[in-house]
Design a protein that fits this description.
By secondary structure, the protein is α/β, with parallel strands linked by helices. The protein has twelve helices and eleven strands. Among the domains are: 68 residues, Arc Repressor Mutant, subunit A (Orthogonal Bundle); 105 residues, 3-Layer(aba) Sandwich (D-Maltodextrin-Binding Protein, domain 2). GO terms for molecular function: DNA-binding transcription factor activity; transcription cis-regulatory region binding.
């Protein structure tokens, strides 16, 4: 190993990470409570140690070089190990402490906080950093090693991953309560195609799953409207703009009060599984290890939680 790398300091890496996160020297300086020349000096010293530039400008935008991308991945591992050390020291003192960094697909955003709350009943000194993303963003974060664990519904088959399916995710067809289809006792997917379908953005896992399923069933919607979030989909259905195929968990409250109706489509629900995922061989912090084990071993507890959640008793 190059001897120069041993001279890097944690402070330099913290400043470097701030520049990466903000794509700006000035915003990094504000975040770190430093002057901009002080930030520039730290980055310049790092570049001298590495022997390569870390950032480059194109127009007015700051971009990471390949060396910076490699250093960012390494710095995330270093700080992750230090955080893990802190957790292990706390564990040696008799309690599990630390933070779980969890990224969840939007289809799981409603249930995930309740899942963590159940986990926290067993480990009250653990905190949560939760990020909600679509499927494409989840894969990007997985490649960048940004999180301890991911909660997703479609596990990529082209990556070496450890994954744990632990809960069903039912996708159903919903309509406003006064929609003509709500008076029908039985429907097929084909019956829905005469109406506009409200869909998510291209990176959405729910959109990908439902499009494939509709293609398999030869149910082709001529009228679609694209919306950028599950909440926008739900509100658009409430506004009468069309029908939607949504995770049942995402519309439980609206179904319960009668604002939306689940349509009796014989090919639905489309059942998917929520899975906890991390790269195979990834070092998991004690908190992440314990949460993964919780999802694997506490099935009865999680199923009871899901029943309460679905019944609106959360």
């Amino acid at each position: 190993m190059r001897k120069s790398l041993m001279r890097m300091t944690l402070r330099q890496l913290r400043v470097f990470r701030a520049v990466c996160d903000n794509h700006s020297y000035s915003r990094a300086a504000e975040q770190m409570a430093l002057t901009q020349p002080a930030v520039s000096l730290q980055i310049r010293q790092l570049e001298e140690l590495l022997g390569q530039p870390l950032f480059e400008y194109s127009g007015k935008k700051l971009y990471l070089t390949e060396a910076a991308e490699a250093l960012r991945r390494t710095s995330e591992d270093i700080f992750g190990r230090l955080e893990s050390l802190d957790m292990q020291l706390s564990t040696l003192q008799g309690s599990l402490q630390g933070r779980l960094k969890l990224a969840v697909e939007s289809s799981a955003m409603y249930f995930a906080p309740h899942l963590f709350a159940s986990f926290r009943q067993l480990h009250p000194e653990v905190s949560l950093q939760l990020v909600v993303v679509n499927h494409a963003q989840a894969i990007h974060r997985l490649n960048a090693n940004r999180d301890d664990l991911l909660l997703i519904s479609q596990v990529p088959t082209d990556m070496d991953l450890e994954f744990l399916p632990f809960l069903d995710n039912a996708i159903v067809a919903v309509a406003p309560a006064d929609h003509p289809l709500c008076s029908r006792a039985a429907l097929t997917l084909q019956d829905l195609t005469a109406w506009p379908l409200l869909i998510r953005e291209p990176g959405s896992g729910t959109r990908r799953a439902t499009e494939r399923y509709c293609d398999q069933k030869r149910a082709h919607f001529d009228q679609t409207m694209e919306l950028g979030s599950m909440e926008a989909q739900r509100e658009a259905v409430l506004a009468g703009l069309g029908l939607a195929l949504l995770p049942r968990h995402a519309v439980l409250r609206e179904l319960k009060i009668g604002a939306l109706r689940e349509l009796p489509v014989e090919e639905l629900p489309l059942m998917r599984s929520w899975c906890l995922v991390h790269p195979r061989g990834k070092y998991l912090s004690p908190v992440a290890q314990t949460f993964f084990a919780f999802a694997r071993t506490e099935r009865q507890r999680i199923n009871a939680l899901e029943r309460r959640f679905s019944a609106g008793e959360q």
